[in-house]
From TrEMBL:
Pfam families: ANAPC4_WD40 (PF12894), DUF1899 (PF08953), WD40 (PF00400), WD40_4 (PF16300). WD repeats lie at residues 75-117, 167-199, 950-992, 993-1025. The lineage of its organism: Eukaryota, Metazoa, Ecdysozoa, Arthropoda, Hexapoda. The keyword Nucleotide-binding does not apply. InterPro entries: Apc4-like_WD40_dom, Coronin, DUF1899, WD40/YVTN_repeat-like_dom_sf, WD40_repeat_CS, WD40_repeat_dom_sf, WD40_rpt. This is Coronin. PROSITE patterns: WD_REPEATS_1, WD_REPEATS_2, WD_REPEATS_REGION. Gene3D superfamilies: YVTN repeat-like/Quinoprotein amine dehydrogenase. Keywords: Actin-binding, Cytoplasm, Repeat, WD repeat.
Length: 1285
């Protein structure tokens, strides 16, 4: 068959798009002007830019799907857009990111993925005030990274964390970089329209070749076609047509193939697979992904099936080892869209997918390399070994091969191990011999055969020469295993670098007697490698292979027994622990044991590990260190055989090292069963261990025979004591409050006694407590109280601290009252407004047919204001119009022109005068505040004649605020970052406040009218005293988000409530102490929404209402002066979205209906009244517990002159009780305290209880029918004559 008629195996590869459920959905991706692909993939993860700024990176598992939350963990590492990101080809968790902030950062992704947001990278490299454009890893050298910034190409050694090469010979910005597959040279495309071949190791100039490429300065990309001599580039020609050019470096100046596509503006991202020669062209902004196949001869580019779908923001290829080869998936493209990540599988159609189609999968680039950065820089070239994708030739079948090599520190240690391996030249012969004697593929490990003893059997030794034989055996074992241990160490270091997830095993303990090199360069990765490699004896004779013994519960292999010339074998022993007790990490599996001790029981086989941090654990570590350090050189204990030594009848003592007279024998299945049955019977007869002492529950004791009992003890001891939090809002007490402060004499005694008995003083003497502020729940406090009464008192008395006991009056009173406490103190504060109810007004009270509402109002403006007579609503269109609607005339508005106030400039903010329902102040973007007066009948026609104008600022005005107590006092805040106070009677400026460094979001007056609080875009909260100083008197940290914020005062001015956004744009409410603004007392997070939460605080009920423009939910909270400070109430959910909410003063609430707050709600077409009530049974009474005397805020308390002259006056209070209504407290009388007689145990009933009982009797009698007529009066009786007879 002629070549041009030869059909390709991949010609019909079809793109298969999964359903939406199998894609990553509801993500936030913007449009970024970068030279990167915006998405990268490894064998385990995918990473892509997040949100419109692109400064954060989202990392998800490769097979992840479904909806994603806006608050999912991210990489918050850069302050500007991430321009490029790449994964290491030899480490699936090593990610490099480049950004416009001139930094390149290295991240380690844990094996389980991101469980929390990361902001601290493993390493940071700087490009010295130049925007980084591209980043990536070398294809063959481990730990070698490249990046480009402007015209600079830089190479970094990650292990040494330094720059090892830099070149600035490119005259313009480098747009793309691609390495040759063998890692010798790279190709660059530059903004100067040239393509270059670059060799960083060349002497002289590194630029080896240069030619002109695409004739447009727009973005161009370059990709080296595998290990060939050809290069493919994509870009634009002079007519801005998209081009694809193939060049051969042997004839570099002449293009081998030029393909012109279309006139689209999106740059083509080339994705090339060198194994199949499949090329995918994904254009940014395009909805199609082209598939072409590259050939060696004309036509060079053969077009395949085209995929059409969503608009592309980025694209990348998935590594071949992560493909589904049993489904004939030859490639997978991850397409990044504005809200999805779509995995597009390219499948070759076959009749059946039961078998592996080897013709579709040639050997591909592996994941192992022996070349490191320093060796490559010195001129060493070494190809990465190929791997076979056949599941039958892979250890774990068709499962994806995932490579995790730990964090950067582990990675650096592995590189150091690689260097030490190259230095040990004397071990090359052993390595070559081991490599040639054992055949393995790329997924198998080196195995060194075990050389058995000459006789092959265990022999009994005499008691007389046991010690001598032991010493000789130790010397012989040490001599014969020196070379073999070096071999196993070398191979283990080599294999440990490429352990996959499924190949990893639990880390083994490190032996003290191993070489110092292993201690210094060893890592967790080495510990997870194959530690059970067998050793060769010095004799050199090979014995037939032994079958592998049965594995134990920890799925590991038994230790190899080393024999001496006499044939005696050492008993395998676990490796001694060499870590300190404080840093001890317990094993999670059964504890290995040997039969050297005489006590062999079932408890030793299935022993539960000791809880970390316990005294028993520490003592065991010490015993292990003391007993095992004198033994022979131990080997890794992946499996310890369960062995038992049967002593002779006359032997009663067994030596610690197991060299007595006895036969070593493995436990049979029947023996294990007998031991298990015996221990099970004893555990059934044992009692529960609730009240046992700690000594009774020691490991291997008779009481601990039950597995369930040991599990219970382990779980109880393994509970973390560090981050202990109360599950319910239990009132917390400071630990320092449990004890009385020490007197000076006691302090002196405490300091003297600490030298004599420091441990007792630390554990028992609560009088020696320091000033640590540790919150302790009352349940724990009571438990400690009992323990200290039983134990601590005597110890404290022994050191002279008996006088510093617990507070008996306060603490014991709290304990005694714990059983009689209200549910509000046990289960948290129960608010009277917990079940508040929001009720919209009847439709007859609505104002309908609203139209042309303005949605261009700035975020600092609430957008809607109402008083008890009328409402003000901004209208769209030029002229800054505000419509005024009378609340006394509800109903449908007539069609036509809506009467409005024409301000002539764009509206920035507006507000009704709180003391004059007819005056409206409007701030415009020209810095002028216009004062309008509305007549009694309302507006009948549009007007542009205000009552007065106040030229407040030369720049735009953020907002305006009236004083809550003084009349004619107005505050304005401007873009010039100043705040001014005005007297509206004289139209004069009184004072100016400074100190803001950025946009001012909000200002709130304190209830007393003396202070003011601001929240700013710079993340600061400031408190001013305007009449005393023009700078803030107090400053603290506020919300970190920059979208907007609001602030208000609470609890009579002692606290401040601030609403804003966090780093991930989640809306939150924070409560601050007005005297200390360093950190919020508590923060409640709501949801992710762009609208700013606008707060309204009702000081009488301490209820906070928050909602945003475009929301449908009004969130209700109660602000308290104790933890948790923010108590959620019943939120009100409206049927439609609202554009604003405005509350009325307290005197307009219908208290007869238990209405404690009233508001008007603006929707797209209506204005609706909204009533907030509290359900009460006796609603006919005045609920004076809900309606305390309220401050008069609807009339002025003092004039402007009085306020500016500091003649402060508190606002008067008035009762809201209507005339003729009885109060609830008058019916529910408070019982007077009655003194109980001392001579009697039972007190008589109080007068209140007697009167209450009488009232109940009267009320019951009133409900019953009362008549004096008897029932027998209606009966027919006997006539009198009959009686006489």
């Amino acid at each position: 068959m002629a070549w041009r008629f030869k059909a390709s195996k991949y010609k019909n590869a079809a793109p298969i798009v999964p359903k939406a459920e199998a894609c990553v959905r509801e993500i936030s991706v913007g449009s970024y002007q970068t030279y990167g692909n915006n998405i990268a993939a490894s064998g385990a993860f995918m990473a892509f830019n997040w949100e419109h700024t692109g400064s954060s990176v989202a990392v998800l598992p490769l097979d992840d799907c479904g909806r994603k939350s806006k608050t999912m963990p991210l990489l918050h590492g850069h302050t500007d857009t991430v321009t490029d990101l790449k994964f290491s080809p030899f480490h699936d968790g090593l990610l490099a990111t480049a950004s416009q902030d001139c930094l390149v950062k290295i991240w380690h992704i844990p094996e389980k993925g991101l469980e929390q947001s990361l902001s601290d990278p493993e390493a940071v490299f700087s490009h010295k005030q130049r925007r980084v454009e591209t980043v990536g890893f070398h294809p063959t050298a481990d730990g070698l990274m490249y990046s480009t910034a402007a015209g600079c190409v830089a190479l970094f050694d990650i292990a040494a964390q330094k720059e090892i090469f830099s070149n600035n010979e490119h005259p313009e910005v480098i747009q793309s970089v691609s390495w040759r597959e063998d890692g010798t040279v790279l190709a660059t495309s530059c903004k100067d329209k040239c393509l270059r071949i670059f060799d960083p190791r060349a002497a002289g100039t590194p630029i080896q070749m240069q030619t002109e490429s695409h004739q447009s300065i727009k973005d161009s990309r370059v990709v080296w076609l595998g290990n060939q001599t050809r290069i493919l580039t994509t870009g634009f020609d002079a007519a801005r047509l998209r081009q694809v050019i193939i060049r051969d470096i042997r004839n570099f100046n002449t293009p081998e193939k030029t393909l012109e596509l279309d006139c689209s503006t999106g740059i083509l991202m080339p994705l090339f697979d060198p194994d199949t020669n499949m090329l995918f062209l994904a254009g940014k902004g395009d909805t199609t992904i082209n598939y072409l196949e590259i050939t060696d001869k004309d036509p060079y580019l053969i077009e395949g099936l085209r995929h059409t779908g969503e608009q592309t923001k980025g694209a990348c290829l998935v590594p071949k080892r992560a493909l589904k080869v049993m489904e004939a998936e030859v490639n997978r493209v991850l397409q990044l869209t504005s809200n999805m990540v779509i995995p597009i599988m390219y499948q070759v159609p076959r009749k059946t997918y039961r078998d592996f189609h080897a013709d579709l999968y040639p050997e591909t680039m592996g994941y192992k390399t022996e070349l490191i950065a320093s060796e490559w820089l010195n001129g060493t070239n070494q190809a990465v070994p190929k791997m076979n994708l056949d599941p039958a030739k892979r250890e774990h079948g068709d499962e994806p091969i995932i490579i995790h090599r730990g964090n950067l520190n582990d990675f650096i240690k592995n590189i150091e191990n690689q260097k030490t391996k190259s230095k040990n030249q004397n071990l090359n012969q052993c390595k070559i011999a081991a490599a040639t004697s054992t055949k393995r593929n790329d997924n198998e490990h080196f195995v060194l055969q075990v050389r058995k003893c000459n006789n092959g059997e265990e022999k009994n030794g005499n008691e007389s020469n046991a010690a001598t034989a032991t010493n000789e055996k130790q010397r012989s074992v040490h001599a014969t295993t020196e070379c073999s241990l070096s071999q196993s160490e070398l191979i283990r270091k080599f294999e440990a670098k490429y352990k996959t997830d499924s190949e990893k095993e639990p880390p083994c303990q490190v032996d003290e007697k191993e070489s110092p090199t292993e201690h210094s360069t060893g890592s967790s990765e080495e510990a997870s490698s194959s530690a059970a490699l067998d050793t060769n004896s010095a004799s050199g004779s090979h014995s037939p292979p032994k079958p592998m013994p049965r594995t134990s519960r920890n799925n590991s292999l038994p230790e190899a027994t080393s024999c001496d010339s006499a044939g005696e074998c050492n008993t395998p022993r676990p490796r001694p622990r060499t870590t300190a007790a404080a840093a001890y990490k317990p094993r999670l599996g059964p504890k290995p044991f040997s039969s050297n001790t005489g006590d062999v029981s079932f408890d030793k086989v299935f022993a539960v590990p000791v809880a970390p941090g316990s005294h028993e654990n520490i003592s065991n570590v010490g015993q292990d260190n003391g007993s095992d350090l004198s033994t022979t050189q131990a080997k890794p204990d992946l499996i310890v055989e369960i062995e038992i030594k049967k002593n002779h009848e006359g032997d009663t003592n067994v030596t610690g090292n197991g060299n007595g007279n006895g036969v070593q024998k493995s436990l049979t299945t029947s023996e294990r069963r007998k031991i298990f049955e015996q221990n099970s019977e004893s555990s059934e007869n044992s009692t529960e261990g609730e009240d046992r002492t700690d000594a009774d529950l020691r490991r291997f004791s008779a009481v601990r025979s039950s597995i369930a009992e040991r599990r219970r003890v382990y779980e109880s001891r393994s509970k973390s004591q560090v981050d202990e939090k109360a599950q319910s809002p239990v009132p917390l007490r400071r630990e320092s409050s449990k004890v009385e402060p020490l007197k000076p004499s006691q302090q002196l005694m405490s300091s003297n006694s600490s030298n004599v008995m420091p441990q007792a003083a630390a554990t028992a003497a609560t009088g020696g407590i320091d000033s640590k502020r540790i919150s302790v729940p009352e349940g724990k406090l009571m438990e400690e109280h009992r323990q200290q009464r039983g134990n601590g008192t005597t110890a404290a008395a022994g050191v002279g601290l008996g006088g510093a006991g617990l507070k008996k009056s306060a603490t014991e009173a709290a304990f005694s009252a714990a059983s009689t406490k209200r549910t509000s103190t046990v289960f948290g504060k129960v608010s009277k407004f917990r079940h508040l109810k929001g009720t919209p007004g009847h439709k007859s009270t609505h104002i309908e047919n609203l139209r042309n509402l303005s949605r261009q109002i700035p975020g600092e403006c609430n957008g809607f204001h109402a008083n008890h007579e009328r409402v003000a609503v901004p209208l769209s269109g030029p002229g800054g119009k505000i419509a005024i609607f009378e609340l006394s005339r509800p109903g449908r508005l007539a069609d036509g022109v809506i009467p409005s106030l024409v301000n002539g400039s764009n509206i920035m903010d507006f507000q009704w005068d709180p003391f004059d329902a007819q005056r409206l102040a409007v701030a415009c973007d020209d810095g002028i505040v216009k004062l309008w007066r509305i007549d009694e009948g309302g507006l009948n026609e549009p007007t542009n004649a205000p009552l007065g104008e106040l030229t407040a600022h030369l720049d735009k005005i953020y907002f305006i605020r009236f004083h809550p107590l003084a009349a004619d006092v107005l505050l304005t805040a401007s873009y010039d970052m100043t705040i001014k106070l005005w007297d509206l009677r004289t139209m004069t400026e009184k004072c100016t406040l400074h100190g803001h460094t950025d946009q001012i979001f909000d200002f709130a007056w304190s209830p007393c009218g003396k202070l003011g609080a601001t929240v700013c875009k710079d993340g600061k909260i400031r408190i001013y005293n305007p009449r005393n100083a023009d700078t803030p008197i107090l400053e603290g940290n506020g919300p970190v988000g920059t979208r907007g914020a609001r602030i208000t005062w609470a609890l009579e001015g002692h606290y401040i409530v601030c609403t804003g956004f966090d780093k991930v744009s989640e809306r939150q409410i924070s409560v601050y102490n007005a005297q200390k603004l360093t950190a919020p007392l508590n923060t409640a997070s709501l949801d992710v929404s762009p609208s700013i939460l606008i707060p309204y605080y009702d000081e009488d009920s301490s209820t906070l209402f928050v909602t945003g423009k475009g929301d449908s939910t009004i969130y209700c909270y109660e602000i308290t002066d104790e933890e948790p400070y923010i108590c959620p109430l019943s939120h009100h959910r409206c049927s439609t979205l609202h554009q604003g909410l405005s509350f009325l003063t307290k005197n307009h609430c219908d208290v007869a209906s238990v209405e404690f707050s009233k508001a008007y709600r603006l929707t797209n077409t209506t204005i609706e009244p909204l009533s907030f009530t509290v359900p009460r049974i006796k609603s006919e009474l005045f609920q004076d517990d809900l309606f305390p005397p309220t401050r008069i805020t609807w009339s002025a308390t003092l004039s402007a002159d009085d306020w500016f002259d500091c003649n402060d006056k508190a606002a008067a209070k008035v009762s809201l009780k209507p005339e003729g209504m009885d109060t609830l407290s008058s019916i529910q009388q408070v019982p007077a305290p009655v003194k109980k007689p001392e001579h009697s145990q039972f007190a008589s009933k109080s007068e209140y209880e007697i009167s209450k009982q009488q009232e109940i009797q009267k009320s019951v009698s009133a409900r019953m029918e009362y008549t004096t007529k008897l029932e027998q009066d209606d009966m027919e009786g006997v006539d009198e004559n009959e009686w006489q007879e």
